[in-house]
Write a structure and sequence with these properties.
Keywords: cGMP biosynthesis, Coiled coil, Glycoprotein, Lyase, Membrane, Nucleotide-binding, Signal, Transmembrane, Transmembrane helix. Its EC number is 4.6.1.2. This protein is an alpha+beta fold. It has 20 helices and ten strands. Strands 3, 4, 5, 6, 7, 8, 9 and 10 form an eight-stranded mixed β-sheet that branches. Strands 1-2 form a two-stranded antiparallel sheet. A hairpin with a 3-residue loop joins β9 (392-402) and β10 (406-416). α5 (84-100) packs antiparallel against α7 (137-146) and α12 (257-275) crosses α13 (303-320).
Amino acid sequence: FIHLELGYAVLRRRVIKRLLYRKGSPRVLKHIRSSINHSNLLSYICFSKHQVQTELLTYLFILELLWTAPELLRHSSLRKKGTQSGDVYSFGIILQEVVVRGEPFCMLALTPEEIIEKVKKPPPLIRPSVSKGAAPPEAINIMRQCWAEQAEMRPDFNAVHDQFKKLNHGRKVNIVDTMFQMLEKYSNNLEELIRERTEQLDIEKKKTEQLLNRMLPSSVADKLKLGMPVDPEEFAEVTIYFSDIVGFTTISAHSTPFQVVDLLNDLYTCFDATINAYNVYKVETIGDAYMVVGGLPVRISDHAEQIATMALDLLHQSGRFRIRHLPYTPLKLRIGLHTGSCCSGVVGLTMPRYCLFGDTVNTASRMESTGAAWRIHLSEATKEKLEIAGGYQLEYRGPTEVKGKGTMHTYWLLGKDGFYKDLPVPPPVEESHGLDETLIITQEQLINTPVPEQVLESLKSTEFNSRESLKPTLSEEHPQHSLKAVDTNPSFIRSMELSKFSSLATCKTQDEASSHYAEIQTD
């Protein structure tokens, strides 16, 4: 919206001159109807009492009274003769029409009959409402003087004319000057509007580019923005990472849909922040599956090392991760890596996706699915790349049956020289393809089941995700409930504690639970 101000000086001067010219003739100024033609010129038609003798409709007669001074509304004899002060009041109403570009009292949600009745019988005193920015303050002040309730308080037309001359600093203003001023103001406002819209466009463009760069590699996004085709590209050697959550179906069965969304959002936010430290590209996430590649879209020689070190870091993060609604349930990550050739390309128009194709993708996925919880499963191709790089701790797993590939010799990645972050202790391979439901402890169980405080403190204080020996905090703080043997396998300890926990669920009182717990310890 561009605000344009009419040439008030020209309009006011013409109206005042017309009124001064008619000063000597007694009349009632019913109203001066103003209209703007296509040339932006204002014409005025003055109506006197004798010129509207044929007006018979009551509604039209009431409308005419909107320009009438209050003292004339109260005395019909004065209204027939007309007064100079009444004309000044009508002039003030006309100024309101010009300033707000609307009918008299148009800003009030009242009918003409209600307005006339309130003007005729105050209090409260009713007048048009004009905002300060609608016209120069001096002009608004003159307009309000013309509305004065007492007729003797209103200025005459000579005084009004003199005040407007002072407002114009004594200079004469013609319609041509006014037109140029309007055009100049229109141009300035238009330039300001264009500048504001351009800034808004730049902000939205940056947001769009940021979103596009998150969905696609920068090189691909740049081509799409320029309208250039994105041809499929072949990469001779890349390393692909796949991972998923062991027992995700079991966790989902004990979670609401919103809790599952929160779990994945928290986990992937953590993973995304972690992989930013490495020269890799996140391809996609599908459910609980997480896919990352090294060596594309920008070719690098150390793609296997980047992916392997990143996998160790993500394994560390999964050991530390806590599920909001299941804080005592471990989140076990299963990881698979493979190195080979592949092709990349953009698929789709409505929602374009950067996808990888080739046997390397399938093999990496098989490395993950045939892997084990809290372990990094490698193909022989990735193992050879890491051996050349040096510094990685590898362990031969043995021949592994891989669907579609037959028997493959695969390996475990155990660590790296100089990588000092704690890694979770993996359970035995034969027990790592699912999640025991006894490991699921919901918040409701914690609240509703009378568990001895020392058990909860043990569960809260003991770190279950370190490959170092666990500290026997329960034995030190509560010797009466000390464990007979502390195993360094966190999964074993967790299963043992939770089996006690599940048996305590039938206890009805705190004393009964404590007594039953003591019996378990002596078994």
